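Lab meeting, item 3. Inverse folding demo.
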């Protein structure tokens, strides 16, 4: 029987680009470059926070819905995508628009791309920095680049160069990199920005080319360092609103239900909370995404106890809505050590745990009735006789993550058994 696909209750931001602001700077030249994603195997956007990577990709994908040059499959990555199965499952859902009954493998994804031929397909991955140094996830993307059919293309946006063979593909004219220099505002961009934002003419010459800093400068009305501008933006907020923003900024996506959990009975809405604030994205369902720079600006607003209480309140809200993965992440960030117990009580069905267990810890959670079973994945790959090793207390082979999702026998059939056969 195939393994069940993980439940994905991610908000719309994961599979849809954010709405474009009415005062968007069009950036036509850059948009034309990104439009070429259907003509090259790999397009990379690499820049620090606030350079407009997400906005540029959203502009390109939404424009494509009018021109229909190809098919865009949008996926905003998060730390859970460091798990290759979660990453592949997300890509599959982004492409097909629905989840699958069984956990997909890379070959399924490649076949799905090919099924759209001759239409070109671009898999658009935003926030790739969330993969960090997770070699298995990057290995999946590198393998995907090698395996995609002729109509398949990959777009990766993040704060650092992706861990795939970008330079080699550039040498073969298969890849294009758009960096901070390219994404900085030009003089023409600044003129459009100043006109749409009502920036006084005397401030135009002082507008910075870093898009996020230009937004803050326009919001405050004068030039200064990024830190000073953030101080002015934050200090200008009413204290209760500032405190709620600080709690909301702990989460990747914010909606009215989450705000009600963070400030029970106060009747806050996301629309009122972010009204007039810079560097905020909205989706079609009314959820908002505060730019990562907000979390940095508001970091000092919460004490350790308030910070933990906010994470726990958010986790309980996610649990009530059966958004289990978000709940687990929030409980873990809060340092809660009883996650399994909380999940079991809400889920209300036979509960099985997986991940990070050995024989002793697995037996412990079963004795404590936190789960009816514990499953093993990577340990079984490296130890085909895992049960026998557990029974006799033998040393375990260490799994080699670099061989995952590569195909062939290496890393799957060549680990030594306990008997030495």
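The presenter then showed the designed sequence:
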């Amino acid at each position: 029987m195939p393994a069940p696909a993980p439940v994905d209750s991610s908000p719309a931001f994961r599979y849809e680009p954010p709405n474009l602001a009415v005062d968007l700077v069009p950036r036509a030249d850059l948009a034309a470059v990104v439009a070429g994603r259907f003509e090259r195997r790999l397009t990379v956007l690499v820049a620090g926070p606030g350079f407009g990577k997400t906005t540029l990709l959203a502009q390109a994908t939404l424009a494509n819905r009018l021109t229909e040059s190809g098919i865009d499959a949008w996926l905003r990555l998060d730390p859970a995508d460091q798990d290759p199965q979660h990453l592949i499952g997300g890509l599959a859902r982004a492409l097909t628009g629905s989840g699958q009954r069984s956990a997909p493998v890379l070959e399924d994804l490649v076949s799905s791309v090919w099924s759209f031929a001759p239409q070109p397909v671009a898999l658009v991955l935003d926030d790739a920095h969330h993969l960090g140094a997770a070699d298995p996830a990057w290995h999946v993307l590198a393998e995907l680049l090698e395996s995609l059919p002729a109509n398949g293309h990959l777009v990766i946006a993040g704060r650092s160069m992706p861990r795939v063979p970008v330079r080699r593909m550039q040498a073969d004219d298969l890849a294009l990199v758009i960096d901070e220099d390219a994404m900085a505002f030009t003089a023409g961009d600044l003129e459009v920005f100043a006109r749409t934002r009502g920036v006084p003419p005397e401030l135009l010459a002082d507008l910075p080319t870093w898009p996020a800093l230009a937004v803050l400068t326009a919001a405050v009305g004068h030039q200064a360092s990024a830190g000073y501008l953030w101080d002015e933006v934050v200090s200008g907020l009413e204290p209760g609103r500032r405190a709620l923003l600080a709690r909301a900024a702990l989460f990747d996506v914010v909606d009215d239900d989450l705000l009600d959990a963070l400030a029970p009975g106060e009747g806050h809405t996301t629309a009122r909370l972010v009204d007039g604030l810079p560097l905020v994205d909205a989706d079609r369902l009314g959820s908002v995404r505060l730019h990562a720079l907000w979390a940095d600006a508001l970091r000092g607003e919460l004490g350790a106890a308030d910070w933990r209480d906010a994470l726990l309140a958010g986790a309980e809200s996610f649990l009530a809505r059966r958004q289990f993965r978000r709940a687990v992440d929030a409980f873990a960030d809060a340092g809660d050590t009883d996650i399994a117990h909380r999940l079991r009580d809400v889920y209300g069905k036979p509960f099985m745990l997986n991940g990070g267990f050995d024989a002793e810890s697995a037996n412990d959670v079963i004795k404590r009735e936190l789960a009816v079973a514990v499953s093993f994945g990577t340990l079984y790959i490296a130890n085909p006789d895992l049960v026998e090793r557990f029974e006799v207390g033998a040393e375990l082979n260490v799994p080699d993550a670099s061989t995952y999702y590569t195909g062939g026998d290496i890393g799957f059939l060549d680990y030594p058994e306990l008997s030495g056969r």
